[in-house]
């Protein structure tokens, strides 16, 4: 019998808040899982947004090769083989608890449990955690199974119970929510037999945390999650004909909020890293690919995985599924992918480090300044999506891990080399076959659902 697979994706979870000296949350369960598995501390997402990240994770391709984006969000090209197809051919049964948006994207398989879909903002402590555990305990999951759990607890806006809303559990609401999640992660993993189950824990992307806590300064501009949730729910009740007016009001209020925040911090001595976190808003037109947005946790444990191992080589989330297949003993005949198996690294061997391609998600209602770029263990490079000469950023990650100093102008030779690597990735892409299943109405459904969930 093939092993089961539990795939836990925690939306918006930053790597530096999962493990390391920058975290202030209380996470005994996560810490124990790291000790019991192999943790990759330099895993990089292919995007700062969920849909692009999903398309990369579940196909092993850079998102721009999947057809997910072309004059609007689309479902992936039907000619592309997802890893779910490979697992299905090997007899796997699929179960999930996943946000409602997913049915429109063409990425995911048919789930066996009929109650798989949930509202995007349903948290573990609000009943989702209990449902996840009940399915594990039900004995209704036919083996071998693949169980995908997508957790939204850290997604904006963050809501907290009084129990966890104090400094013992973290210096920000974001980290206090991690402490609350940790309890449920422990409960869920206690129901899993690690001898015959491979567990993978990761994230789709990171987030700005609007709080600064250091020896010289403590300031928190995180929003009231409960209030924001009520406002969002009321906004969803507005009739479609009035949606343009709603959008204009939103952007008007965002400009006011931005000015107020700027007035609060303009006289403070802040690093660029601290300032961009405090000033970030959903309505920001200019997008970036800083590590707080794309550096994510990646942990393997259980079946065929050794314990207490940390790998510091840069890897990518598009490497996850090639690795899963290798660990559970399924041959991957699809060679036209960008990801690679990390099993050699897990076994203590060496493989070449590949540059991580990244791209920002784009706004729906206004034109955004989007970026593409690459990351290596030494440098981060990104620039305007359409013009290689505009908005060029280059950071020395070894000497400037918080990406405070853009050195593109003083190190043009390095920027040129990084652009050449980026161009090689972009040009090494065959045109996608014509997709007979594309439907403009589906694009509208996807984008309407994204707007309902708070995307703009």
Automatic annotation (TrEMBL):
Which keywords appear in this protein's UniProt record, sorted alphabetically? Hydrolase, Transferase
Task: Specify one Pfam family.
Answer: Sulfatase
Q: Does the keyword Hydrolase apply?
A: yes
The record places domain Sulfatase N-terminal at 3-330
Q: Name one GO molecular function term.
A: glucuronate-2-sulfatase activity
Q: Does the keyword Transferase apply?
A: yes
- Name the InterPro entries for this protein: Alkaline_phosphatase_core_sf, GAG-degrading_sulfatase, Sulfatase_N
Q: What is this protein called?
A: Sulfatase-like hydrolase/transferase
Source organism (scientific name): Marine Group I thaumarchaeote
């Amino acid at each position: 019998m093939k092993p089961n697979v539990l795939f836990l994706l925690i939306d918006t979870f930053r790597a530096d808040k999962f493990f390391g000296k920058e975290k202030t949350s209380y996470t005994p369960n996560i810490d124990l899982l790291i000790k019991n598995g192999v943790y990759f501390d330099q895993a990089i997402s292919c995007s700062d947004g969920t849909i692009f990240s999903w398309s990369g994770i579940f196909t092993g391709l850079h998102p721009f090769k999947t057809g997910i984006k072309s004059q609007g969000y689309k479902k992936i090209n039907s000619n592309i083989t997802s890893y779910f197809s490979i697992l299905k051919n090997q007899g796997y049964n699929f179960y999930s608890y996943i946000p409602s948006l997913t049915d429109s994207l063409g990425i995911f398989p048919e789930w066996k449990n009929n109650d798989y879909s949930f509202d995007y903002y349903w948290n573990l402590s609000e009943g989702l955690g209990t449902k996840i555990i009940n399915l594990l305990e039900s004995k209704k999951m036919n083996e071998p199974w693949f169980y995908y759990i997508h957790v939204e607890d850290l997604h904006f806006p963050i809501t907290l119970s009084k129990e966890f809303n104090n400094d013992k559990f973290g210096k920000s609401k974001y980290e206090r929510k991690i402490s609350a999640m940790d309890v449920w992660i422990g409960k869920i993993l206690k129901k899993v037999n690690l001898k015959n189950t491979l567990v993978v824990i990761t994230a789709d992307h990171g987030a700005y945390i609007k709080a600064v806590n250091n020896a010289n300064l403590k300031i928190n501009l995180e929003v009231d999650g409960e209030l924001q949730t009520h406002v969002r729910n009321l906004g969803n009740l507005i009739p479609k004909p009035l949606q343009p007016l709603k959008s204009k009001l939103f952007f008007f209020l965002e400009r006011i909020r931005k000015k107020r925040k700027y007035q609060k911090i303009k006289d403070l001595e802040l690093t660029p890293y601290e300032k961009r976190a405090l000033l970030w808003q959903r309505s920001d037109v200019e997008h970036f690919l800083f590590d707080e947005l794309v550096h994510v946790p990646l942990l393997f444990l259980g079946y065929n995985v050794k314990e207490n191992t940390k790998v510091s080589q840069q890897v990518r989330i598009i490497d996850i599924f090639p690795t899963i297949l290798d660990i559970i003993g399924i041959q991957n005949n699809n060679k036209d992918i960008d990801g690679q198996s990390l099993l050699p690294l897990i076994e203590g061997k060496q493989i070449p480090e590949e540059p991580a391609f990244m791209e920002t998600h784009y706004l729906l209602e206004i034109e955004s300044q989007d970026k593409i770029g690459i990351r290596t263990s030494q440098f981060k490079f990104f620039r305007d999506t359409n013009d290689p000469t505009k908005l060029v950023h280059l950071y020395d990650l070894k000497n400037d891990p918080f990406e405070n100093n853009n050195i593109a102008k003083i190190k043009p030779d390095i920027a040129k080399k990084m652009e050449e690597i980026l161009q090689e990735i972009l040009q090494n892409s065959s045109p996608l076959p014509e997709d007979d299943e594309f439907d403009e109405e589906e694009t509208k459904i996807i984008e309407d659902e994204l707007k309902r969930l708070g995307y703009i």
